[in-house]
Amino acid sequence: MTPVLRTERLEFLPYRPEHEDHFVALLRNEEVCRWMGQDLVPEPQLRDLFRAILTDVYPQRRFDVWGLWTEGTYVGHAEVKPTGNVDGHELVTALVPGYWRRGLGGEAVRGLLRHAAEDLGLTEAYGMVGADNTASLSLCRRLGFRFLRDVVGDDGSVTKLMVIPTKDPHTETGTATAPRAAGTAAPEDGV
Question: Is 129 exposed, middle or buried (0-12, 13-18, 19+ CB in 10 A)?
Answer without folding.
Answer: buried
